[in-house]
Amino acid sequence: MPLQTHHKIIIGSFSSLVVIAFIVTGILLSTLYIQQTRNYNSLKDQLSELQTTSQSQINAISGNLLQLKTDLETSQQQTTQQISLLKASANSDFSGIINSSIPSVVTVITNSAQGTGFIVNQQGRSDYIVTNAHVLADSSGNLASGIRVITDSQNTISAQFIGFNATLDIALLKISGNYPALTLGDSGKIQIGDKVVAIGNPLGLQFSASEGIISAIHRTGINGLPYYIQTDTALNPGNSGGPLIDNEGNVIGINNFKISGGENLGFALESNYIKQAVNEISQKALNETLIA
After folding, report:
1. pLDDT, tens digit (0-9, with 9 covering 90-100), for 56-69
2. Domain 187-275 falls in which CATH fold?
3. Distance from the Cα of residue 75 to its chain's centroid
4. 98-181: CATH, from 3.90.1150.200, 1.10.260.40, 2.40.10.10, 3.90.228.20
5. What is the dihedral of CA 135, 141, 143, 146, to 10 degrees?
6. What positions carry a catalytic annotation?
């Protein structure tokens, strides 16, 4: 039996609705897929950004931890040094400073006399020694022959004369070797009452140490210049040219002379003038500044 017209209309309408439903469903699924793809890409980008941020934060935290470790180690070293300095200052305990300074001190010997010197700078395998010029003079006031130095390990080494400053009584020597150097402190910061120690060769007693205080500063020396520290530290013949060391282990003077007939009246050229004299000698003889 053939379909009636109204049956055909109903079937056609139903088919159209099915097609439309498929189309709408396809559009909805396509839209949903696109949206999910966008959400996935957005989530992926967020995860990537979060990973980068997290790695940066981890790196920053690691860097901060390393810096904290370094700071703690530095602080510990500074604390240890401060405790040592406080101990030296409060308890007059110069034992550590003396022990660390002696390898930089030498006995200076010529065919005419002997005294003391100390190493102030290192240049490769050579070391420069400061002493008093009068230690190197013979009985006629001329440069003595056979200049040698004896180290704390009792090695005897020939020394080369570089030059001298007659006004400030400073001479510069050079030896072969590799020895630790002492640091020149700023004598402009010293104060009366500061504790000091002298290391030298009094009366041939090598590497003897004597302790005292700064009695006065800017005293006038035998050259008429107010460049000298007065100290009650015991100084005797043979101490000339040796270092006067503060409680931080820095050289603040070079022991130069004492007043005869009195007790504990020693004088040392202030370290700022040692530096000036050494650099004048090195500029003239070596064409270089030895001490920065």
Report:
1. 778 778 778 778 77
2. Thrombin, subunit H (2.40.10)
3. 15
4. 2.40.10.10
5. -60
6. 134, 169, 240
